[in-house]
Amino acid sequence: MATVRLVDESEATGAVAAIFADIKATKKLDSVPNFWRVLATNPTQLELVWTRLKSIMHPEAEGRTGRLDPLTREIIALAVSATNGCAYCINSHTAAVRKLGLDVEALGEVMAVVALFNGTNAIANGYQIEPDVFPPLD
Amino acid sequence: MATVRLVDESEATGAVAAIFADIKATKKLDSVPNFWRVLATNPTQLELVWTRLKSIMHPEAEGRTGRLDPLTREIIALAVSATNGCAYCINSHTAAVRKLGLDVEALGEVMAVVALFNGTNAIANGYQIEPDVFPPLD
Amino acid sequence: MATVRLVDESEATGAVAAIFADIKATKKLDSVPNFWRVLATNPTQLELVWTRLKSIMHPEAEGRTGRLDPLTREIIALAVSATNGCAYCINSHTAAVRKLGLDVEALGEVMAVVALFNGTNAIANGYQIEPDVFPPLD
Amino acid sequence: MATVRLVDESEATGAVAAIFADIKATKKLDSVPNFWRVLATNPTQLELVWTRLKSIMHPEAEGRTGRLDPLTREIIALAVSATNGCAYCINSHTAAVRKLGLDVEALGEVMAVVALFNGTNAIANGYQIEPDVFPPLD
Amino acid sequence: MATVRLVDESEATGAVAAIFADIKATKKLDSVPNFWRVLATNPTQLELVWTRLKSIMHPEAEGRTGRLDPLTREIIALAVSATNGCAYCINSHTAAVRKLGLDVEALGEVMAVVALFNGTNAIANGYQIEPDVFPPLD
Amino acid sequence: MATVRLVDESEATGAVAAIFADIKATKKLDSVPNFWRVLATNPTQLELVWTRLKSIMHPEAEGRTGRLDPLTREIIALAVSATNGCAYCINSHTAAVRKLGLDVEALGEVMAVVALFNGTNAIANGYQIEPDVFPPLD
């Protein structure tokens, strides 16, 4: 159970109601996910997080074209969330990649890559291996 | 400086020399990266890690077709490594995505998505937000 | 469900009973939190953790004055727990900051700062940005 | 060494130059920290991160009053960065808390609290201790 | 609830059925743990993970002798899982160390060491302490 | 470079000098490691950390018998440090396990186990796999 009371859509007014509406329209959802209902307990933060997430994850909604496609962005989100062990986020981004067409077998590949590098990260750190020499990316 | 002495290519023999050759051929490299030279201090582990990494990251080399393309796989590797703060791995996978055509602006998008979800993971965990309801992926 | 059986207050004797009493008195609680009931399965560890936590978090109880006030200490505890995603700890320290007067809006600011820097940590690590030059703190 | 080339102040133009100037003015700095010079390789991301950081960490610069004071905000930043082991961020936020008056002894208390709860987080997770019962914060 | 449907033992055929049988025989279990039933949604990954885990954790089953004894290996697994806060893994490896004879008091020592170094790691990182000088291990 | 100035052995007096002497005697070292020289900037914290570490890692020095042997304790310390990517700690605990007789091949096994479970932790979390049923440890 969340440590704060979730704001219900029916009680949202003003800026919060407008953001709730924008979230549902942009993400094509019927209801506002719990994440945003919790953030609404501090409207300033709700707006900051939504504005940034919308800009990064839905550039199309702002008339910009992202360099990464929507599925790649959601796969990164899932990889980060699995690495951090965030239950809410894993459920949410698994649903998102599924909606974007990733099936259970391809999800298995995502998890295989995530697991592989969580493992090799521990090896490289655990032996304090020095980076090979590469020039910085210009 | 690594906590163990790196195995030099010139001193590798037998199974280790064969794996070193396979690494260079599969990854089209002129020299063996430090990671593998450290793992070679325990040849059994060298083989286990290389076999698995080759299978997951280079399925084409084994005549299989992966469901994810090579750039997506390297982007996941970089996202995991940035989340874990693994210096060696970040350098290595940044070089890999660059080789596969990702420029500095697109790298900025990858980092933006990685940062965004490391942030929202902390929020979702920090409030103990319960997952929205989704059916399991069949 | 915890992986070990919790020690009940009614079955505690000797040193464990004394520590349980000290925990309730120092923290002004009516019952012993689960954390301490689990640690009581190894009385040596119970004493080590409680002694240290009391000294750091309740210096006033030992006649010392801490340099940080109690609310700041609990906010740090919550920030660390949110970053690590520790469910028990997040619940416990959210209750503590609430008791010390932090309302839901101010909690939103704490979470905003926690999320912001979990994000920027990933960016700074993800690009391997070198520290700016600062002299060490004397 | 960073994986991308840092943007020099002298080569910044347009929106990037304006943000560089705002960073120096808001943070009262003589030069632009490396973090922002790296982010400038993708101007959209530079703007998104700076806008959000300014709003959360410098609400006074926007005519708003934060609920947390500047030192508490920087202490949270340092606690998160120490937990994640982000070298750049630790250096940067240690310099910030020092500027705001935290001396080396008080820094010792911050680190003691950070260490204590990184330890107890592992215990609470390691035994899978169930949360004590608390009502959500209204 | 897992984000994918678990493969039931009764529906497993071919390579998956063979691996399920090998898992039960090698680990002396009556049923296949959930972890492997989830991995079976991608048979290639099931095989890769099982092959590697068997080689590292059950070398005896392959006629090799490991340098670490089985209890030490499971203690490492538990220490890593507690540090990462992985609920499934903590439950599983606690059951494993128990089966291998570790009682609740000794488990308390494992957790004490895990907690201690999660704490000191944060201190060493938090102050950016430079390593003492040691020669690499030959 | 550490963010604070290290306390030199030659300038230590009173309680700090006594703890420095105890560290060298207990750990059979010729000089005080950097970790303790940094902690000495806050003598109260130096004492708290040393007292606890001595009790957990050197119970023999206090006339108690630990349930884990010294090598197992140091292996856990190394596994935790590799998982957290703490450079100082990895160097320090690698030196410790080496002193206790672990050679480079056995170190390879430790790292293999650490890497394996950092990987499987990500899988178990990444699919949100529910724990198998085990009774709590009595």
In short:
Six copies of one chain form a homohexamer. Chain A contains six helices and no strands.
Low-confidence stretches of chain A: none
Number of strands of chain A: 0
Greatest interface = A-B, 65 and 65 residues
Beta-strand percentage range of chain A = under 5%
Helix content of chain A: 55-70%
Instruction: Please state the oligomeric state of the protein chains shown.
Output: homohexamer
Biggest sheet layout of chain A: none
| Average pLDDT for all residues of chain A | 95
Structural class of chain A: mainly alpha
State the end-to-end CA separation of chain A.
47 Å
Q: How many alpha or pi helices of chain A?
A: 6
Element pattern of chain A in H and E: HHHHHH
Rg of chain A (CA only): 18 Å
Shape label of chain A: elongated
What features would you describe in this structure?
The structure is a homohexamer of 138-residue chains. The mean pLDDT of chain A is 95. In chain A, α1 (14-27) runs parallel beside α3 (43-57), α4 (70-84) packs antiparallel against α5 and α4 (70-84) packs across α6 (104-126). In chain A, 62% of the residues lie in helices and 0% in strands. Chain A is mainly alpha-helical. The radius of gyration of chain A is 18 Å and the shape is elongated. The N and C termini of chain A lie far apart (47 Å). At the C-D interface, α2, α3, α4, α5 and α6 of C face α2, α3, α4, α5 and α6 of D.
